[in-house]
Fold each of these.
Amino acid sequence: MARDARDSIPIRLGPAFERSWPAASIGAVECIMNLLRTADWASARHASLLRPYDLTTTQLGVLAILYDAGEPIPHHVIGTRLLTKAGTVSWLVDGLERRGLVRRVPHPTSRRTVLVALTEEAVPLVREILPLLHAADRAMVADLNAEEQETLVSLLGRVQLTIRMTDACQGDSAPGGEDATLPS
Amino acid sequence: MARDARDSIPIRLGPAFERSWPAASIGAVECIMNLLRTADWASARHASLLRPYDLTTTQLGVLAILYDAGEPIPHHVIGTRLLTKAGTVSWLVDGLERRGLVRRVPHPTSRRTVLVALTEEAVPLVREILPLLHAADRAMVADLNAEEQETLVSLLGRVQLTIRMTDACQGDSAPGGEDATLPS
DNA sequence: TATTGTTATACTCTATAACTATA
DNA sequence: TATAGTTATAGAGTATAACAATA
């Protein structure tokens, strides 16, 4: 818990960094380092709230997507929203189905499509848990007033846009990975 | 790559969210969702830059810590800076040692301590790779001027402080997890 | 006794590829 | 052919616990 000297809040890069890496933009590196650290801490907070329920953030993400949809949806929609591959969705649904939180139901018209639905047991669970996460979100940014929160969202949005545009231009692989958002 | 409707930039929660979760603070949830997404995208960018070198961000984290230290350091120091457990450090060092990027050397005085050192091969590699990441960081926040970058770092710092303080108060588990910073 | 490090095991998540079945 | 989903395998990263050696 006690961390080393680099663990200041926020992370600041000193003259030693500047000497080692004269070509780097200190401000930019500080932005990214603090971005990564803040997100790590925030998602750790979410994870620790979910631990008593024996759910991971990804699992809750699936449940929240289903709750949000309000009706059974096919695998590939979950995959798209979660930004993950088909194999992972199958695996996630397997786990949730084993726990009785989710149910596979046949698609009315397409026989190759499988719909995933929340069980009666899962609905009250989602209604219990998501407010806990929302409250945690509120607490984590409690030191920022409404205007500052809006500034933060806006700055992050501009970074997102820059990342996505340079991704597209370079023909690079998509940002990929987990969205880690908890849609609701 | 084409994402669903929720994939606006930045993520904005509409009236449907407000209806479903009247107790939530929309601004706060938007902050956290965009924070997590931006960090995901940024770390995906780092990971994709490291892929040609067949290195993960954690592995480079170890190399950067060693480069930064400028001298061989014991395992537990790496663990502290990386915010990971002893077992993980052993495992990481194993992998890097197998690739010839790192070397275990005996501690001059303490015989229970093992020092980890960069090899001659690793030094130029670190000098080649870290500037790539620094350049990527610069590019990702290129749309923000110096003042806006400073604002972002400052806002993130205040969120970090809030998280850490409430962690301490609740006696909750430490934020834990990976710092994901690339010290240098 | 407390610390340093190793080893082993298990779990989450991701990625990939081969496969079946359906459209 | 293209899409939907399953299955299997591999790997990264983390957590935990048991363990040996040293301070």
Amino acid sequence: MTSSKIISLPQDFFNRDTVTVAQELLGHELILNSDNSPQGIKPQRFKIVETEAYTQNDPACHAYKKTTGRAANLYQAPGLAYVYLIYGMYHCLNVITEPEGTAGAVLFRAIEPLTTNPESSLKTHGPGRLTRALNITKDQHNGINLSQSHSPLFLAYGKQKLNSSPIIQTTRIGISKAKDYPWRFYIKDNPYVSVL
DNA sequence: GTCGCGATTTGCT
DNA sequence: GCAAATCGCGACA
């Protein structure tokens, strides 16, 4: 292993149309810095294999006709993390998109472990499972900057991006409003995708 | 103050 | 296939 440096995605990557960001994030990487560990533990790397887009004018979005409570997070600067609690027991991880003052976010639904030891059997398929596997919580990770490589969690350029598999675009999972919006993206034939 | 629901997962029938 | 677990937030009283 050479000393190839992990380059974080710049804030401008997220300062764009939410649906575009959701699609382009596939194949890039989510990096978990183990800053709680003792010395010299390598960061854990995960490939993003499944995402969904949520925008300001989207009836299924938390910020649809709302600016208070948890929805206020969605109007923040692009590149920040939005973590919320769903059904009282599971966390979901998003990254804020669009300029500050405009709501938008991309939900991470599934990731593929790239550096995890096989016997740990991390379950990272599904938005609730992946946050549990990485110990992501609202208290610790909501609002952190995902475009800075010194954050406990951040996003980075994927090395397999250029020759990645085809991308499938379908409707989103688990929502009752705007079911017909084709704003879910995943990498074809990837075994870590939550629902085929 | 009380009620109902939600971008989910799991276990039981 | 269906319901339980469990909590933040909006709607209503």
Amino acid sequence: MANITIEKTKYECAQLPKRWQREEVFRKTGITVGKVDLYYSRGVRNDGSLVPPIRQTASIFKQPVTVYRTQESKVKTDYKNGNQEKPKQLMWEKRLEGLLACDTDGYEFEAMELPKGIKSVGPNVNDATVIRSVATALHVSSHPVTGQTGTKSLLEKNPGVFLDPKQPLILGVNASDDDIRRQEERVALARRKLQEALKQ
Amino acid sequence: MANITIEKTKYECAQLPKRWQREEVFRKTGITVGKVDLYYSRGVRNDGSLVPPIRQTASIFKQPVTVYRTQESKVKTDYKNGNQEKPKQLMWEKRLEGLLACDTDGYEFEAMELPKGIKSVGPNVNDATVIRSVATALHVSSHPVTGQTGTKSLLEKNPGVFLDPKQPLILGVNASDDDIRRQEERVALARRKLQEALKQ
DNA sequence: CGGAGTGGATTC
DNA sequence: GAATCCACTCCG
């Protein structure tokens, strides 16, 4: 027969503000043994079902570096055969669908909006995925970020052939002189605001 | 004007057992900054006047090894010219007079007694010095430890001539058959005791 | 130095 | 007397 003793409980409670948790801890030793201490803490949202994404690409792919065992056991890059960058997995962004960034208190950041000039491309790609795709390209890529080069219909009919994994999931964008002028204006405005803020 | 803040104190305290020390350490950072941690430790006896002995022999003496600077900067022994052992300083034991061995808590070990058969030799040599001399010879010497070979009067009249620096400061000892038998008995007894102790 | 966990004073 | 709260200890 199992002798079950509940020693610790932690749960959200209707009387408490949203996401606050009540924790009951029994004292296990000492002259106050058996008494209960209550702790209240704001919990971090965690569905449990949200498993963080893991690398799914098989290791049969060429690796970005070639390992030479020298006397000092260091790793040397194989410059001779060109940049052997590991091929990007197509549509890797979909592995992050359903996940949301949050601050340290568990509050999710508000969704960002896709600028009107940007047209998403690809089968069943939603706005959040496209934004992730663009943001990653801007942060990580060493090439100009210009978008896909094919037509929308071609790209969605046969993405395995026509999608360029080095470009984000958007149709090609061309910056007009007008776009450049407006961006320059925005930068100038931001600089003025910063200058004023620094004066105070 | 100096702003003096005492951050650390260490002192013996009347309420504490002899030689125990109380140490107060202020926490300097973190959310518990300013709080005090107390440490108690048994102090080590230290007269300050007891300066440990340092090597006093001049470097004009031949050295036990000859240094060759090889590529690996290692030291090679000069076997070719025989064992160039550095001459021992006569009466080096006297440099340790007044010093006592102690355990890690500072408690001095009890004095050892010189066996009755052992006769010390040398000018102004006390028992503690003789014991050190014998113990060092037994631990360090690669030769049989038999004591000095001259007579007591000769040795003390002109130690610079007659003292053998490779032998301890005792008159020659001869182990009789009786001595050997008694030592064998002691060893046998010690082994029996060990065997009994291991049984339990 | 932080944090879990307890003693004990204080409040209800 | 129970509930609550805070200070403190002690260990990693």
